[in-house]
Amino acid sequence: MKTVGVIPARYGSKRFPGKPLVDLFGKPMVQWVWEGVCQSRRLSRVIVATDDDRIYKTVSAFGGEAVMTRYDHPSGTDRVAEVAADMEVDVVVNIQGDEPLIEGRILDRLVSAFDGESGVEMVTCAAPFDKDTREIDPHTAKVVVDKNGFALYFSRWPIPYAHQEPKGAQWKGPLQHIGVYGFRKNFLMTYTTLCPAPLEEIEGLEQLRALEHGYRIKVLEVDHQPLNVDTERDLERVKTIMRERGIR
């Protein structure tokens, strides 16, 4: 399969304006994301999609490929679709621009989910929660899946409500969503024709658009600790983890 990775990066984030360019140990955050994505063996091309000239120039300066897009896209996936529309590819991977320690092996596993699986149109990843407080943090997206590994629901709220202990099979709890999505190109183009749905707008989670319109999302459980930066508090947490990993 021909695959491409696209990193949507806009300057005007409501919660953290300018975060793609925030400094992390001498590099802008978007560079950390781009370098992690470039570790993938399954992506033939990596592109940063932006609507801001400052981000475009920064990416070009460190040797990455950037393209300018419209400024009025309702979601990062819509921005990715603009870039992929005229490309001859089979699978498009959307990597959120606020995952500075994303690993190429995670993307390779995501792409492999499409191998020989004609019924899989959209794939994302999730990980078990660790023992910190992010399971109740509204900035952290949670997902619950069915027995076949397809998403039942995504939410910023802790889900499900613990009415009682489950009987029979052991319940492992919700998973922490990781901001990467793989699409077959044809479905990505379909996705962009779907109207943003009420749950998507209420939760502020674009993946709910697919579920509300009746499409399935395959969820892969991986051993990767999500390190997304939604707020300045998240940035300090990421810096602490990077220092613990020997990054200075």
Description:
The protein has 248 residues and is of the alpha/beta class. The chain has a single domain (3-244), classed as Spore Coat Polysaccharide Biosynthesis Protein SpsA, Chain A, CATH 3.90.550. Helix content is 27%, strand content 22%. Strands 1, 4, 5, 6, 7, 8, 9, 10 and 11 form a nine-stranded mixed sheet that branches. β8 (142-145) and β9 form a beta hairpin. The longest helix is centred in the last third of the chain and has 13 residues, at 232-244. The mean pLDDT is 91.
**Which whole number gives the mean pLDDT?**
91
| Element-level helix/strand string | EEEHEHEHEHEEEEHHHEH
Regions with little confidence, pLDDT below 50 for 5+ residues: none
The CATH architecture can be given as: Alpha-Beta Complex
| Dominant shape | globular
Binned strand content: 15-25%
Rounded to the nearest angstrom, the radius of gyration is 17 Å
Helix percent reads 25-40%
Query: How many β-strand stretches?
Result: 11
**What is the total domain count?**
1
- At the fold tier of CATH, the topology name is Spore Coat Polysaccharide Biosynthesis Protein SpsA, Chain A
Count up the helices: 8
Structural class, please? alpha/beta
Strand count, sense and closure of the main sheet? 9 strands, mixed
Name given to the CATH homologous superfamily: Spore Coat Polysaccharide Biosynthesis Protein SpsA, Chain A
Termini Cα gap: 38 Å
CATH C-level category: Alpha Beta
Features of this protein?
11 strands, Spore Coat Polysaccharide Biosynthesis Protein SpsA, Chain A, two-stranded antiparallel sheet, alpha/beta, globular, single chain
